[in-house]
Amino acid sequence: MTVDPTTLVAIVLMGLATYSTRLAGLFLVHRVPASGRLHQALQAVPAAVLTAIVAPAVFTGDLSDLLAGVVAALTALRFPLLAAVVAGTATAALMRAVM
Predict the structure, then answer these.
(1) For the chain, how many structural domains are there in total?
(2) pTM, to two decimals
C-alpha cells in the first residue's frame, strides 16, 4: 500500500491545526476571566455543538430520526440537556426496532 505524500501532509497539517486549537483553548481559559456575556456564551456551547451534530441526521434521516429529534427538542424545553439526549436516543432506538 502506498501513501500519497500530498494526502499525508494534509492529514498531518489537519491534526496539527486541531491540536493547536485545543491547546489555545486551554491556554485562553486560564487567561480570560469568564464573567457576564462570555460566561453565558460558554454555557451555550455544549447545546450548540450537539445541535450542529444531530440536526443534519434529524432533517435528512428517516421518520424515526425526525421523531427522535422532535422528542428530544420537546424534552429539552422542560428538562436538562442529558435528559433530552436520553429521550431522543431511546425514541430513535424504539422506532428503529418497531419499523
Answers:
(1) 2
(2) 0.58
